[in-house]
Amino acid sequence: MTVPSWVKPGFWGLVIGAFAWWGVLVWGFGWMNPATARQMADDQTQDAVVAVASPYCTSRFEQQANAVTSWQALKKAADNFDQDNYIEKGGYLDLPKTKPMSELADAVASDCARQLLALKQIGGVTLSSLK
After folding, report:
1. Mean pLDDT score, 103-120
2. Is the pLDDT of residue 100 over 80?
3. CA dihedral (67, 69, 74, 75) positive or negative
4. Is the pLDDT of residue 103 over 80?
5. What distance in Å separates the CA atoms of residue 27 and residue 30, rounded to the nearest whole number?
């Protein structure tokens, strides 16, 4: 059996064309595998929840009677992990009528602590003057 002379170039044309088309789909149209798409969606969901829950957490912290003392304790926490734990244990993360956010609690606590430590004053007390 003889193979026609056009088979070898035709095969390589098919292979190169398939790779070129795959490149157009991936880079031109943004195609990706399902795991990557799922991870991107999870990241965007977490970012959205943090963006909504952090201001609520900050507001609850500021509205407490001993907000300045609590802010000083938060500032004295040794590292980010301790600050996140302080926020979580204080109950500032819990949104009304929702279950505790176990999966997102660390991200919300971290962002809430960052926002609280960036405050200039709480309840009319200038925080930069405190030691």
Report:
1. 87
2. no
3. positive
4. no
5. 5
